[in-house]
Amino acid sequence: MPDYTSIRNYCKKFQQLNSTVIDGFLIYYAAQQDRLNREAEKKLARYRHISKIMPEGWRNMSITQYIGHRVFRRGGLINKYINHSGLSHLTDEEMAFLELQKEHPWRFSFAEVTGRPEPDFFEMSDQFTGEAYLIYSPGMTRIQQTQNPTLWFNLIGFNGKCFEAYGPIAGYSGFERDDILFFATELNRGKWFENGRELMDNVEENPVPYLCLFSGSNFPLSYHKEDQIVQVSAEYLDDSFNTAAFGDKFKVEYNHGVYKLSLKGWEEFPHYTAAYYDEKEELLFLNSMTDRGFRKLIDRLNECGYRLSYEPDVRLNMAMVKTANDILKKEIELNRYDKLFSIDDPDENPEGLENINTMLAALIPAIITGEKPDLDALAAQYGVDPETAREIYGQLSNKMNPINPVASIVNQTGGLNPNQIYDLVACNWEKNEGPVQLNGKLPSTDVSGSILFHNARTMLLKAQKEDGLGLTQTGNLQRKPISGLLPECRWPEGYLETIKEVNKVLNEHDVWLLHSTRVLLEIAGLLRKYKGKLKGVKKMSELSLGSRSGELYRHLFITYFRKMNISYLTNNTFDFPNLQANTPFTLFRLQLLADDWVSIDELPEQILLPLANEEIATRSNKYTKPDWLLYTLILKPLELFGLMETRKTGDESEWSYKPDKCRKTPLFDKFITFRV
Fold first, then answer.
1. Among the four residues 420, 436, 647, 652, which has the most C-beta atoms within 10 Å?
2. How many Cβ atoms sit within 10 Å of the Cβ of residue 419?
3. Closest C-alpha among 133, 308, 584, 304 to residue 288
4. Helices 386-397 & 375-382, crossing angle to 10 degrees?
5. What is the mean pLDDT of each run of 10 residues along the chain (676 residues)?
6. How far apart are CA 18 and CA 56, in angstroms?
């Protein structure tokens, strides 16, 4: 078995060299020598409409990745630079590092995870070259904490022990191998890729449009009950087509030289399964929006005398439909025949499939966020009957409805009816006039055990006492106030020790709990940045007094769960708005259920409303399960506030440090009461 501890240490050393030699020198050297930054900017300019909607920093990171690829790809510029006098200042170790990269060219890889032998190590399978490799990537681990990627796109290089990724890491939640193949063919109209290596050669030649696929990385796979919603199609030459052979298995229509054969029982949502025959082209075109519908169509046609394969020519997820449309700035026609059979009577004919596909792609962002779209406007825009649009949206989002007044939901809410749930979730915490009552008169002895409260008050008092804490040019705490705060603050067991194993010098972002505390105090209006310092806000200064500890604690709690993004403390890259809005209900259920130790893995179904439960379920995978997200986003902050305590009762030899049990502390019922 590989010595993963040794490999991990080697990888960390490699990353230090990477940071020093490549990020700190060679990227700038290459940009100056061959104007690669301008080359990258020119290629990205074609997709400026995508850059505008991407996360802050993506464009610069992509330019850096592009330059790194041009330098270290097969036949890259490193072969020219390696003997340049401009590299003469590098040490022998640094030159040996570059020689290793020259001998093992970097390449892009679309890959699936096939195994996870150790934390931060992933066994990968390249979906286009068939290569298997081991990669060390803490970044992939972080993404898996909030996402469930089906496919990864990385620029990878060999470090002598395993592979590592350079630049932005793309984990696609709604793309599969065939989606990438489809995008490549749409990008290169008229070109046919004989095999996966030809496609990857196209990526290597110009990776920029493929980098833009990051814009759709958060779109999930679409499902209706058990069926994945996909565009599945195939074409066959047929010079002996005869409608008499189909009997009563199909509904047959004809228009402008094209027959449409709708498979009875499968012609409506979600399947829309049909075959089309073009007399002029002597072409049989098969189409369905589910795999099950496509296989049923094949079965029925084979019963009629055909010998067709279950393997489609195209299998496309709705996430790629939208993403490709956006990147390529065109409406991609998925079924050129469907428009011949437009709706005259909605009771007799299913909606035009092309219109349904396009509308579904537009609905994806709304379904992700839980926002209610303007269905009438969408129906008019895409030529779909409004009632059909409402039916489709209702079918896709019904299970995500947070206040569905049916018995099965009420049974999960401790007996609360929908109106009570609404009042609970929507009440104003600050006024203390609704179902949630937060006690702001607790003595300092009750709240002083809270790590988050203690650290926030310590930072606030220090800023007041020293007339501000020094800030860097980027607005973070300078090392001097950090070194003063670290011993005065409190930390979870082993927290600082783990950080110091990796970082010799600690900056604010290295100690994320310190950083998020500073952000919390700013959002709470207790600290503000002024002339290069972090200073206390005078009108709020009295909240730091020991006699007002209860008020400060209450103010911080409300700010954290109602105003601050709960994803920030855990450094998650994705938001959980439904889970955060669900917090009052979660607290209500914990009050009832957590008097004694309860299993965390059983809690999501018991303390979350359906929309919040669905939100964390769609981000989970076999490594990052819903209970882990619930712990990091809700239970851990409550623990830092001193309201919950957790413990690990499972196998201590397991690498996971997540506790599996939790219960309320006495402070919970002192601080939070409910009137429902």
1. 436
2. 10
3. 308
4. 120
5. 93 92 92 92 94 85 95 96 93 96 97 96 97 96 88 97 95 96 93 92 97 91 88 95 88 92 93 95 96 97 94 94 93 88 47 58 56 78 76 58 37 63 81 89 94 95 92 87 94 87 81 91 90 88 88 94 82 70 91 93 86 76 74 93 90 58 96 91
6. 23
**Helix or strand run (H / E) with residue 368:** helix 353-369
Query: Do 154 and 267 fall within a single domain?
Result: no
Per-residue confidence (pLDDT) for residue 117, from 0 to 100:
96
Predicted local confidence at residue 370, as pLDDT: 56
How many CA atoms are closer than 13 Å to the CA of 52, on its beta-carbon side? 7
Task: Count other Cβ atoms within 10 Å, centred on residue 131.
Answer: 13
The distance from CA 505 to its chain's CA centroid, rounded to whole angstroms, is 31
Residues 246 and 363 occupy one common structural domain: yes
Q: Which of 511, 544, 513 is nearest to 527 (CA)?
A: 544
Provide the token pair at 81.
């630079």
Token couple for 240: 């002996």
Residues β-bridged to residue 107:
156
Q: What is the DSSP letter of 450?
A: -
Question: If we measure between CA atoms, which residue out of 229, 497, 201 comes closest to residue 361?
Answer: 229
- Which among 403, 446, 350, 392 has a CA at the least distance from the CA of 643? 446
Token pair of 580 as six digits? 């955060």
Secondary structure element (H or E) that encloses residue 61, with its range: helix 58-72
Placement of tokens 């395993």 in the chain: 162
Residue 153, Ramachandran bin (φ over 0: left; ψ between -120 and 50: alpha; else beta) = beta
Residues 416 and 498 in one domain: no
Instruction: Let me know how long the chain is.
Output: 676
**Which H or E run contains 173?**
none
42 and 191 Cβ atoms separated by less than 8 Å? no
Q: Answer whether residue 440 is part of any domain.
A: no
**Interatomic CA distance for residues 336 and 334, integer angstroms:** 6
Residue 197: C-alpha distances to residues 69, 127, 185, 262, 292 (Å):
17, 10, 14, 38, 30
Query: Does residue 554 sit within a domain?
Result: no
User: Which of 161, 187, 216 is the endpoint of a domain?
Assistant: 216
Q: How many domains does the chain have?
A: 4
Query: Comparing C-alpha atoms, which of 190, 187, 183 is closest to residue 317?
Result: 183
CB contact set of 542 (below 8 Å; sequence gap of 6+): 548
User: Is residue 312 in a domain?
Assistant: yes
Alpha-carbon distance 309 to 183, whole Å?
23
Is the omega angle on the peptide bond into residue 270 within 30 degrees of 0, that is, cis? yes
* Residue 367 structure tokens: 């379904």
Measured CA to CA, the distance from residue 350 to residue 2 in angstroms comes to 57
Long-range contacts of 620-629 (CB under 8 A, 24+ apart): 620/148, 621/144, 621/147, 621/148, 621/149, 623/116, 623/144, 624/144, 624/145, 624/146, 624/148, 625/601, 627/600, 627/601, 627/602, 627/603, 627/658, 628/145, 628/658, 629/145, 629/146, 629/576, 629/579
Q: Which helix (H) or strand (E) holds 57?
A: none
> 422 and 466 in one domain?
no
Name the amino acid, one letter, at 355. N
Same domain, 246 and 368: yes
Our measurement of the distance from residue 292's CA atom to the centroid of its chain's CA atoms, rounded to an integer in Å, reads 28
The alpha carbon of 447 is separated from its chain's Cα centroid by a whole number of angstroms, namely 35
The pair of three-digit structure tokens given for residue 318, joined into one six-digit string? 């709705």
Task: Classify residue 243: in a domain, yes or no.
Answer: yes
Same domain, yes or no: 449 and 407: no
Give me the phi and psi of 134, to 5 degrees please. Answer: -105, 130
424 CB neighbour count, 10 Å cutoff: 22
Give the span between the Cα atoms of 468 and 445, in whole angstroms. Answer: 27
Confirm if 222 and 120 have CB atoms less than 8 A apart.
no
| Each residue's pLDDT tens digit, 608-644 | 887 788 778 876 665 567 888 899 899 999 999 999 9
Q: Do 604 and 618 share a domain, yes or no?
A: yes
Q: Which domain holds residue 38?
A: 4-216
Q: Bridge partners of 315?
A: 232
- Do 236 and 348 lie in one domain? The reply is yes
